[in-house]
């Protein structure tokens, strides 16, 4: 049985990734800060092999504790999905040092340390998937520390792919656009923000959690086994076109 670690597993995309990978027959170590929500996730996954670890990824010992728990339970780690993130960024001139440090800690330092700790336990055929953002692909208004962290995670992705690809360990990034999740629902309630994302996207709908989770699952499948060092953008064409609807 293959084993996947999913961070930020109680949020929209993380929850979707954990359940989708469990459906494919993988054992899941799900980690997030909220223990009650982790219990809800484990109940949703049901009969599949699942283990939860409540942890703040910015804690110094959290990555090692998560990796050790997976190895102790299953003796192997096949996939790491670095999904945990922070929303509501501000532009550079409005970002204080505490906010900068927190964004970088959650979305760059923690994935870096987790990847470093899982590598010794990965065999050929394993993979790391980093959830980045369209803001790591194109310039984004108000991106600030979020763009900096996600851009760093993109660079880390290509480094891992190059450094460890010869060992049979792949690394790719999945860059979602605006996806309907609890983290974005308050923004999508703003008509201007919603229209910017629907009427500038050639595919005339908003992205769903399953769009992202299915892409992650593909990268963990035999069908994705020759994909390495890539960023797969899941945004309906928003970032790669200059589409405007008739409206």
From TrEMBL:
The membrane-spanning stretches of this chain are none
Location relative to the cell: Secreted, Cell wall
The residues forming a coiled coil are none
- Enumerate the UniProt keywords alphabetically: Cell wall, Oxidoreductase, Secreted
* InterPro entries (UniProt xref): KR_dom (IPR057326), NAD(P)-bd_dom_sf (IPR036291), Sc_DH/Rdtase_CS (IPR020904), SDR (IPR050259), SDR_fam (IPR002347)
Tell me which Gene Ontology terms the entry assigns under biological process: monocarboxylic acid metabolic process
Q: Which domain of life is it from?
A: Bacteria
The chemistry this enzyme catalyses reads: a (3R)-hydroxyacyl-[ACP] + NADP(+) = a 3-oxoacyl-[ACP] + NADPH + H(+)
Q: Which residue intervals define the domain Ketoreductase in the entry?
A: 2-179
The protein's matches in SUPFAM superfamilies, at most eight in alphabetical order, are given as: NAD(P)-binding Rossmann-fold domains
Pfam families found in the cross-reference section: adh_short_C2
Please give the Gene Ontology molecular function terms for this protein.
3-oxoacyl-[acyl-carrier-protein] reductase (NADPH) activity
Can you tell me which family this protein belongs to?
Belongs to the short-chain dehydrogenases/reductases (SDR) family.
Name assigned to this protein: 3-oxoacyl-[acyl-carrier-protein] reductase MabA
Q: Which source organism?
A: Mycobacterium kyorinense
């Amino acid at each position: 049985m293959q084993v996947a670690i999913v961070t930020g597993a109680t949020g929209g995309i993380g929850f979707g990734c954990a359940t989708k990978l469990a459906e494919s027959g993988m054992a899941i170590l799900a980690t997030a800060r909220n223990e009650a929500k982790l219990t809800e996730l484990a109940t949703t996954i049901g009969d599949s092999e699942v283990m939860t670890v409540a942890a703040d990824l910015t804690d110094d010992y959290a990555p090692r504790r998560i990796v050790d728990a997976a190895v102790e339970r299953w003796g192997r780690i096949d996939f790491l999905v670095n999904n945990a993130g922070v929303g509501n960024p501000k532009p550079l001139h409005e970002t204080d040092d505490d906010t900068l440090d927190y964004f970088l800690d959650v979305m760059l330092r923690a994935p870096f340390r987790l990847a470093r700790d899982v590598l010794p336990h990965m065999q050929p055929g394993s993979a790391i998937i980093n959830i980045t953002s369209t803001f790591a692909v194109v310039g984004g208004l108000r991106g600030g520390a979020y763009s900096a962290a996600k851009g760093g995670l993109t660079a880390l992705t290509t480094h891992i792919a190059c450094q460890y690809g010869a060992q049979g360990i792949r690394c790719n990034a999945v860059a979602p656009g605006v996806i309907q999740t609890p983290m974005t629902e308050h923004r999508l309630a703003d008509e201007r923000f919603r229209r910017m994302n629907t009427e500038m996207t050639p595919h005339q709908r908003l992205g769903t959690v399953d769009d992202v989770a299915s892409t992650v699952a593909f990268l963990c499948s035999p069908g994705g086994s020759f994909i390495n060092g890539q960023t797969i953008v899941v945004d309906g064409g928003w970032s790669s076109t200059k589409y405007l609807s008739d409206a």
